[in-house]
Amino acid sequence: MPVSEKSSERKHRISAPGENTLLATIAICVVIFHILAATMLTSIRQSDAGAPPEPPGLSSGD
């Protein structure tokens, strides 16, 4: 097999990422997910704060 064919085969191989790369990618995704969830929860609480209070006797805690 000529050397040129060997080098072209190496270029087409897709190497699997290492364990550290996968763990880092998962950690970054988890952090982004937590930031988005906190942003959503904060915006929901702020919109609830602007809502008028429930009349007495109708709250679900009674």
From TrEMBL:
User: Can you tell which superkingdom this protein's organism belongs to?
Assistant: Bacteria
Residues passing through the membrane, by range: 21-44
Name used for this protein in its record? Energy transducer TonB
Sorted keywords for this record are:
Membrane, Transmembrane, Transmembrane helix
Keyword Membrane annotated = yes
